[in-house]
Amino acid sequence: MPIQAMIAEGDLVAVYFICEGKHTGTPFAGVPATGKSVTFSLMILLRISDGKMIEHRSHVDVRDILRQLGVPA
């Protein structure tokens, strides 16, 4: 998953990815594996202190992934 954008200010770093994968293995959000391919964006916010990551937050549009898996809204 190549990085699309990265922005840093102070002790914060924001990273934006486009992810691709196939829904196999364990269930996702209660949906058993479908074998379908999905593409979704992922935003991660990191807080760095003394060269170490001390906080991690991420955002992904789960509804978009479920739509791609064929789950009705």
UniProtKB/TrEMBL annotation:
It comes from the Bacteria. GO terms for biological process: polyketide metabolic process. It holds the Pfam family SnoaL. This is Ester cyclase.
